[in-house]
Amino acid sequence: MLNRIKRLLSPPIFPDDDDKTRIAQLLNIILLVLTVIFIINTIIAIFFNPDFNATLLNGASVLVSFALLLALHRKYVQVTSWATITIFWLFVTLIGFFISGLSITIVTSFFVLVVLAGVVAGSGAAILLTILSIAIGAFLFYLEYSGQLIPPMPGTALVNATSSAGNMVIMTVLVSLTLRTLNSTLKNYRTTNQTLQEIQASLEERIANRTRDLALAAEVSYSLAQTRDLNSLLIEATELIRERFELYHVQIYLTDSLQQSLILHAAAGFTGQELLERRHSLPINPASINGTAAFERRGVVVPDTTVSRIFHPNPLLPETRSEIAVPLLIAGQVLGVLDVQSTELGGLTEEVLPAFETLASQLAVSIENARLYAETRQANIEVAAYLHRVTREGWADYLNAIDRQEKLAYAFDLETEETRQIEEIAPRSVTNNVLEMPITVADEAIGMLQVETSDKHDWTEEEVSIAAAVVQQVSQQVESLRLLDEAERYRHEAEQAIGRLTRTSWEAYLQEAYENQAFVYDQERVTAVASEALASPTSEAIRQPLQVQGQTIGELEIIGGDETTANLTAAVTQQLSSHLENLRLSAQTEKALAQAQRRSEELISINHIVSLVSTALSLEESLQIIATETADAINAQQVRVTLLNDARTHFQIVAEYMGMLDAPSALGMLIPVANNALNKQVMSTHSTVVVEDAPNNPMAEQIHEAVMEQGIQSLAIIPLLVGNAVIGTVGIDIFDPDRKFTEEELRLAETIVFQAAAAVQNARLFEQTQQALTRTEQLYAASEQLVEANTLDEVLRAIVTYTTLQNLERAIIILFNQPWDENPDKLTVAATWAQKPEYTQILAGTTLPITQFPAFNALDASAPTLISDVTMDERINEAAATAFADINIRGIVGFPLTVGDRWFGLITGQSARPVSLADEEIRQIKSLVDQAATVIRNIQLFEEIQGRATLEQTLREMTARVYAAPDAESILRTAAREVNRVLGLETFVYVDTPTDTPDTGLLHDTGPFDKGKQKTNGHS
Q1: How many angstroms separate the Cα of 254 from the Cα of each of 243, 326, 330, 364, 626?
Q2: Predicted structure pTM score
Q3: Under CATH, to which class is 230-377 assigned?
Q4: Which one-letter DSSP state was computed for residue 1?
Q5: Dist CA 695 CA 705 (whole Å)
Q6: What is the CATH number of domain 789-944?
Q7: What does the pLDDT look like over 725-770, one tens digit per residue?
Q8: 991: alpha, beta or left, given left = phi > 0 and alpha = psi -120 to 50?
Q9: DSSP for 737-788?
């Protein structure tokens, strides 16, 4: 109760606004005090002031105070402040005008309100209220002084005393609250100032530490930047970082080539050496501190290892209490991880992370630079080795002992001032009078310069420098001469290659356009004649060869003429040769453009065909598109597409295009692979087979009848290849005897078929997948029905509904009277199904001797039995075939019902037509039959158990009735009646009457029935 009152009297608190909280506290106290004062004044006015208006005003003041308190507790602080000041100032003013005049109560009230306004509304409100109060007070004084205002109730001494006392109390409260607020504010200021000083000192210390860390990082980075060897860099980095930052342990991991593991490459101290010897590594995943840093590419800080879930203690580093792992990043790629550890709890925190991140980035740059330097150095070594090898091989080719000697030597004789070549170079001993300097090209020694004096000589630096300069000039000059000679040789080889190319091109051009042709001008016109028809050249004829790139492409011959004519002919021949070459190049260019245009059109056509095939909704539609589009592309009269069956024994025609031909369709026709040389050749060579003059071509001998019947003149068979396997063929037939397949047509057709083959295979696989899904769904549905089946009819119906057995005329469940290994002699038709009622030949429940089953000898317990045609199957003898024919059965399929190794029946399907089932269909049926066997066996066991339970129940009831009989005769009659009821047979009970045996009350059989026996039947 007290807590509730305390909550009601407590002012609202504003955590985000201390000044608002202060004003609310002041207003709360003042309004509570005013409420108490007004209540007291109201009581005094009731008892001591006869004026009802005074009592009414004091009562109204109490209500107003309560209303203001309510508004304050609703957190309307500013509104309550101004409302309190305004309302009470108006109350005081009205009391002064209409009740008391300018009394001591009014004056003190104005004073209190001015102070209150300053406290809760600020100095502006206090000044405004002061001016208004002085003005009202002066006006009241003037009215009273002039006699215009006579207070109706100037107030008694008690009222004035209590009112003044109340105002003094309010003033005291205001002053006390103001002083308390000032003291609290001053205390808060001192506390805040002290806190700020502590924070400033802490910040200065932290800044100093961070500055020191950054300076150390910069120092370490500068030191590392001087090292170019990667191993030395990593070792130096770990030691410097541990020493400068006073750490417990520092180690550097680098990523492997697959970016999957962190491999330790450097670690400080003896512990680090042991870790390196162990080839320590970590996977890049969030399972460890270093793995997390590399995986998330951010620094990981563990200020307290005892509470970290990703910290894994290392027995070699038992004193680790805090740890930081920073990834080494360069261009977004993780090179490794810098890991630092400290023995101090909280020694490594988020505050020091920036310094280590800076250090890690500099270290990453240094590592990358070291790698690049090593790679560059290795590349330079490889380039230098390559230059050495090229130079050595070049000089070996130059001095090849064929074009030139393997060794060349020249000597200059000062006496004769002549240079001569030396055939043999005699070895010379190195003495003071001989100066030797190697002649090098790309640091590869190719010779030697020897300077010899006649007597002992000390070589000066100037002489050595001159010799070195000469050697350098000689090196450059001989290398330039060698390169020039090599370039000349290459130029000569290029000219020869161009000549050969020109000759080959002209031979092909002439063979294609002007083979064995010549052109003759007879002063009237130019005519083309065969080369053999030209007259033999005479000695008087002027002949000039037509040459292009040094190759003779023809000859210009002029009969008769003089020297001037010969000169003119030579000039014309050169221009004619150039013009002929230009014409040939122009013709080849046009031919190439035409071929490119044709290739482009073919490519567009191929893309269109592949697009159509890819968007086809079925395999048949895809193959039909191939047939139609191939025929359109090469203008073929007939195209047929075949697919190879799974057994790879037959091709089946699945699509055809026949154009305007009026011929029967061959869709669905099976073409055996055996005894078909064309198909065998396609399958073995994986290449197109073309047969021209098909009626007379021996290759088409095996299809000669079909060729003659359809009038096919030429045919081509293109394999449908997927990977390295033939899945079908595309056959193209031509009926025009004057038309042959061109290379372009065959190439285009092969390209179309090759490009479409993948799409066809995809469609085929998709169709097979859909069929497999359908079969799977059927298996699931059938399995559900089998599980829910309660009768054998339901079992059989579930199997037939979801398999191809539904396409047969009838299906039957046959059960043996005992398992097969126990030699059953009878079988029972347990359930039957027929497509139509008239197909039913035998009723469920029929029992037959097993020898009457015609296919008895063909049954197999381990696998399904398929007899496609009883008239053709070797397993069916003549008698059985006749029996099947009598009941109109041509095809049979049987699936054994086995549980474990016990064969107890079968499910058979029968048809009046030959039966053909695919392997997948047989597997699907067998899968369901295997499930059905278990279900059927469970149904049999359930029926047996149910029958046994019924029999036991009957026996219990019969026993109870027998025991309930009152005498022996009743017992006998009851027993006979119950046995008759249970077995449905007439029952007799015979009791032998004993003659010599005392009557013990017991009935027992003593032997054969005789005249003394009593007979009781179950009907009496």
Answers
A1: 22, 12, 13, 10, 57
A2: 0.39
A3: alpha beta
A4: -
A5: 9
A6: 3.30.450.40
A7: 888 899 998 888 888 888 888 888 888 888 777 767 777 677 777 7
A8: beta
A9: TT----HHHHHHHHHHHHHHHHHHHHHHHHHHHHHHHHHHHHHHHHHHHHHH
